[in-house]
Amino acid sequence: MAELDGDVFHPDRSVAATAHVPDADALRAEALADPQGFWADMADELEWFEPWDKVLDDSDAPFYRWFTGARCNIVHNCLDRHLTGPNKNKLALIWQSEDGSEHKTYSYYSLNRQVNMMANIIKAMGITKGDRVTIYLPRIPEVFFAMLACAKIGAVHSVIFAGFSSDALASRIDDSESKLVITADGSFVNGSVFPLKSIVDEAVRYSPTVENVIVVRRAGNEVTMDALRDHWYSDLLALPIAKGTCETVSLDSEDPLYILYTSGSTGKPKAILHTHGGYMVGTYTTLKYTFDMRPEDRWWCTADPGWVTGHSYLVYGPLLTGATVFMFEGGPTYPYPNRWWQLIEYYGITQFYTAPTAIRSLMRFGEAWPNRHDLSSLRLLGSVGEPINPEAWHWFHRVIGKEQCPIMDTWWQTETGMFQITQTPGEPQKPGSAGKPFFGQDVAILDADGNEVPDGEEGFLVLKNPWPAMLRTLYRDDQRYVDTYWSTYPGVYLAGDSARRDADGYLWIIGRTDDVIKVSGHRLGTAEVESALVSHPAVSEAAAIGLPHEVKGNAIHAYVVLRVGEKETPTLAEELRAHVAQHLSPIAKPDAIDVVEKLPKTRSGKIMRRVLKARAQGLDEGDLSTLEE
Ligand code: WT7
C-alpha cells in the first residue's frame, strides 16, 4: 500500500518492483562511478547511422562534445525507427481543440507522412542544413510537423512562444537571422482569437532575412497575405513538391538541432543552443526512467512547445520513447475549471506532467471539479518550473492522484535540456523537494568561496558533471556562455538557483539568485521588463522585482521614475501594464506599478533591486554602504 508517513510519501512496493529502475540508489551510485559508461549504454538503446569514437570529448571544456564522430538524426529515432516495428500503427499524437469540437490522431506512420510533407515544402523553399527557421504557432499538430521537419533536414528551429509580442518576436527573428517563419492566422485563447499573423507581419517588417512565411489556417480570422512572401500551408500541401518521402539527413552528433531564447540577467535574451546526438540521449533517458514510460501509456505534458519543457517532453522525448502523447490546444479553465480533468478521463491519461502554478490556480476552484471525473487512469504525476509548495503537492497528491500516484518533481532548465534533479517513481518522496540528482549527475551546493556548504544550509546550486543534453553554447556568443555558466566557479556549471540538501540527500530548490523572476513558471528577466517600461514615452527609469504571490509563485512589481514634465494620472499604471503586455508579453505584465521620485542605486549607478524588495516586504534593507546619497 502507498502511504504518506508524516512528510514522506512511500509509493506502493509494486511501483519500484515493476519500474524500469527498480533500485534507483544502486543505479545512481553505479552511474556516478562511470557516467560515460552509463550514457553509452543509454545511447545504445537508440539508432545511429555511424558509431561514436568518444562518448565525451572534454578537451575544449566548457565546450563539451558528446558522442563525437557519430552520425545520427533525432528524427530517425523519433519517427523512422518506429516505422519498421510494432509502433508503426500506434498512436503517436492525440490532439484536441480548445472548444472540444475537433479531435485529431496521428499514428507514427501518419505523423511521419505529415513531417515528410512539411519537410519537402521547406526544402523546396530553399531551407537547407544549418538554416534557422522561426516557428510561431499555437498548440496545434503543425507545431510537431514543423519542428520535426526542420530537424529532419538539418535546419535549426527557433520556436517562439505564441504569446510573445511583435517586438519580442522581431528581435528573436533578427538575432537568429531566420529565412522562414511558420505561423498560423490566429490562435484560440479562452474562446477569443489572438491574431498571430498580424503580429508576424509587424515583426517581419523589420526582419530583412525572412524570405517566406508559411501560414496555417487555424482560427479563420482575416489576415493580410503578401503575395510574394506569404503562403497558406494548405495551398503548399496541394503542390506536387509536397508529396513523397523526404530523406532524414545524416548529421554529425554535434550538429545543431535548435535554439531557444530564454531570459537572463541582462536585457538581451540568451539563445540556448542544443544539438542532435546528446540531446536525444538525454531526453530519452530522463523521460524513460523518471516517468517510467511503458508501451501502453498515454503521456500528457501541459507545457507549450514555446518553452523547453515543450521541446524536451512534449515533442522529442515522448516520440523517442515511442509513446502516445496528448496535446491540448487550450488552457485549464476554459470554459470551466474541469477542462483538464475531463481530458484525463476521456483519453485515459496515465502520466500527467504540469506546473505548480497551474495546480495552485486549479486548487482555488475546489475539489468538486476534479471529483466529477474518473481519474483512475493516472499512475504518475509530475511537476516542473518552480518549487512546488507542500500545500499544492498535497492537493495534487490527494485530489488528483488519489493518494496513489507518485509525484515526480523535476528540476531542470532551458540550458540543461533534460531533468537534472528528480526521482524515479518507486522512491520515497518528500513534498516540496525536487529529489535527488539524476543518474550520472553530481550536484553540489557551494558558498561564495566555492566550498560545499554543510547539509541543511543554503548555497549556490552547481552541476559538477557534464551531461549529454547540455547546452553547447549561447548561439554566436561563446564568451557569454563561458561567463554566465562557467566562470563563477571554474569547471562547474552554475545553475543560478539557490538550494539546500538535507541529511537524506534530498535537494530543496529555493529560487533564483540572479535577476531572473519566475512568474507562473515563466522565466522573465528584470531587464526585459524594465526596457519595455522605459520604451513608454512617460517613463525615464524603471526597476522590476519579483515578490511572492500565492498562485503565480512570484509577481512582478515595478517602480518607475517619470520623465520631467510627465505627471502621474489615475490611468497611468494600467497604461504601462498594457504597454508591457504589448511590447514584451502579457505574461510579463507587472501586478503593481509605483511611481517614485528616484530609484535606490549604487554609487556606480546600478539599481539595487534587493533594497526595493526588502522595502516592499517590510524587511531589513541589509547593507546599504554602497547606496548612493
Ligand atoms: C528555472 C529554469 C526546465 C523546465 C522549465 C523551466 C526553476 C524549474 C523547478 C523545480 C524548483 C524549478 C529554477 C530553474 N525550476 N524546475 N522542479 N523546482 N525550481 O525552465 O524557464 O529555463 O527555468 O526554473 O529556478 O533555474 P526555465
TrEMBL record:
Q: List, alphabetically, the Pfam families matched.
A: ACAS_N, AMP-binding, AMP-binding_C
InterPro entries membership: Ac_CoA_lig, ACAS_N, AMP-bd_C, AMP-bd_C_sf, AMP-binding_CS, AMP-dep_synth/lig_dom, ANL_N_sf
Q: Where is the Acetyl-coenzyme A synthetase N-terminal domain?
A: 25-78
Which CDD domains does this UniProt record tie to the protein? ACS
Q: What is its EC number?
A: 6.2.1.1
Q: Name one GO molecular function term.
A: acetate-CoA ligase activity
The AMP-dependent synthetase/ligase domain covers which part of the protein? 88-467
Family under the similarity heading = Belongs to the ATP-dependent AMP-binding enzyme family.
What is the name listed in the Swiss-Prot or TrEMBL entry for this protein? Answer: Acetate--CoA ligase
Per the UniProt record, the source organism is: Propioniciclava soli
Underlying gene: acs
